[in-house]
UniProtKB/TrEMBL annotation:
GO terms for molecular function: fatty acid synthase activity. Residues 1-76 form the Ketosynthase family 3 (KS3) domain. Keywords: Acyltransferase, Transferase. The keyword Transferase applies. The keyword Methyltransferase does not apply. Residues 77-101 are annotated as: Disordered. InterPro entries: Ac_transferase_dom_sf (IPR001227), Acyl_transferase_dom (IPR014043), Acyl_Trfase/lysoPLipase (IPR016035), Ketoacyl_synth_C (IPR014031), Malonyl_transacylase_ACP-bd (IPR016036), PKS_assoc (IPR032821), PKS_Beta-ketoAc_synthase_dom (IPR020841), PKS_NRPS_Biosynth_Enz (IPR050091). One of its GO terms (biological process) is fatty acid biosynthetic process. It comes from the Bacteria. Pfam families: Acyl_transf_1, KAsynt_C_assoc, Ketoacyl-synt_C. This is Type I polyketide synthase.
Length: 428
């Protein structure tokens, strides 16, 4: 099966370099062929391949020892400068021109040599489009363990990074590393409230058709449950409410998270597991396949609206303490303050009565603890939300959870599960 491989390689190289190679291992042509009766002759010396204005073509015959006879015709590939936009995929995200060039090889030495060859190619073809080169490097080559990524906007950025890689030197436009022995797993993490800002998503909505498509779908899913339009809120048009309202910001963040997740999936980054906090858990459940978009929209919209019933009755404070230490600290306000969320080994949020939080902040200031009040006037994830329990369950009665297609980690149990049989855990 491999009888003609060397011939294929030789011919491809000849086409690429525009050279007719000499016929090897032939001192005298065979006398069994009448070389005078036609125009066929052996090449005794290497010659330039004539440029006729048409693509070069060559035929290769392979005669196997068992009697097989195969013939292959190869045509010269288009030049880099020929119709660079032909069949180019529609970009999922428009950028400011910053592009990645990924390289990989089986060894560090081979990686450096590859950088030298590519640098030489750039020197010989300075007109080559960086985007086209990046696309070919990303989609047309095998991935090996020794890797480098060049980041740049101008040809000079890539040339400098390639020179640094070839010489084993650092560069601000270069990242190198070795692939992990075992393939890694990807987790999508969906945050809670507080990650919003005015104008979020607007530029991406205008430059990414994929993101805009899913954001529009989220807006349509929210429409039956809100008195405002999501796109108007994000663009601040048509007298839309701003993000200061909890019943606006939480659905807006939910839509942002879902649309970003779908964009990552479109780009080939898919989650092996998902986890979310607060309304982020609702988005995570949709991406995991547990909630339809419509059910997910219902939950985030109606949940945020019920929270308005307890607005002005409490608050939340972030403490740079482990959960156990935070619990000890607020013990003197038992029944008025509670641990709301554990955000990290030394990051805990407590919630409860506003006056108790004022006293806590004063004590922390006196003790040198850098406590910070969170800008909300309700006590989420605390006993303050208990009066909303029955109303919320009634509102969410039509929701029908499904089996998960992606592992969904609960922030209540810290375990991955299938269907959300008990939706009350999402009111934690």
């Amino acid at each position: 099966a491999a009888a003609g491989v060397s011939g294929v390689i030789k011919t491809v190289m000849a086409l690429r370099h525009g050279v007719l190679p000499k016929t090897l291992n032939v001192d005298e042509p065979t006398p069994h062929v009448d070389w005078t009766s036609g125009t066929v002759e052996l090449l005794t010396e290497q010659q330039p391949w004539p440029d006729t204005g048409r693509p070069r073509r060559a035929g290769i015959s392979s005669f196997g020892i068992s009697g097989t006879n195969a013939h292959l015709i190869i045509e010269q590939a288009p030049e880099d400068g020929d119709d660079p936009d032909h069949d180019a995929p529609e970009p999922a995200v428009a950028t400011d021109g910053t592009l990645p060039w990924p390289l990989s090889a089986k060894s560090e030495t081979a990686l450096r040599e590859q950088a030298r060859r590519l640098l030489d190619r750039l020197d010989r073809s300075p007109e080559a489009a960086p985007a086209r080169i990046g696309h070919v490097l990303a989609t047309g080559r095998s991935a090996f363990d020794h890797r480098a990524v060049l980041i740049g906007r101008e040809p000079a950025d890539f040339q400098g990074a390639l020179a640094a890689l070839a010489d084993g030197e650092p560069s601000p436009h270069l990242v190198t590393g070795t692939a992990a022995t075992e393939p890694g797993r990807t987790v999508f993490v969906f945050p809670g409230q507080g990650s919003q800002w005015a104008g979020m998503g607007v530029e991406l909505m205008r430059t990414s058709p994929v993101f805009a498509e899913h954001l529009t779908a989220c807006a349509e899913a929210l429409e039956p449950f809100t008195g405002w339009n999501l796109i108007d809120v994000l663009t601040q048009t048509n007298d839309a409410p701003d993000l200061d309202r909890v019943d606006v910001v939480q659905p807006a963040l939910w839509a942002m998270m879902i649309s970003l997740a779908r964009l990552w999936e479109h780009l080939g980054v898919t989650p092996d597991a998902v986890v979310g906090h607060s309304q982020g858990e609702i988005a995570a459940a949709h991406i995991a396949g547990i909630l339809t978009l419509e059910d997910s929209a219902r939950i985030v919209a109606l949940r945020s609206q019920t929270i308005t019933h307890i607005a002005g009755q409490g608050g939340m404070v972030s403490l740079p303490l482990p959960a156990a230490d935070a619990a000890d600290l607020i013990e003197q306000w038992r029944g008025r303050l509670a641990v709301a969320t554990v955000n990290g080994p030394s990051a805990t949020v407590v919630a409860g009565d506003g006056d108790a939080l004022d006293e806590l902040l004063a004590q922390c200031d006196a003790q040198g603890v850098r406590a910070r009040r969170i800008p909300v006037d309700y006590a989420s994830h605390s006993p303050h939300v208990h009066p909303l329990h029955d109303e919320l369950l009634e509102l969410l009665a039509p929701v029908r959870p499904q089996d998960a297609g992606v592992a969904f980690y609960s922030t209540v149990s810290a375990h991955a599960g299938g269907a959300l049989d008990d939706t009350t855990v999402m009111d934690a």
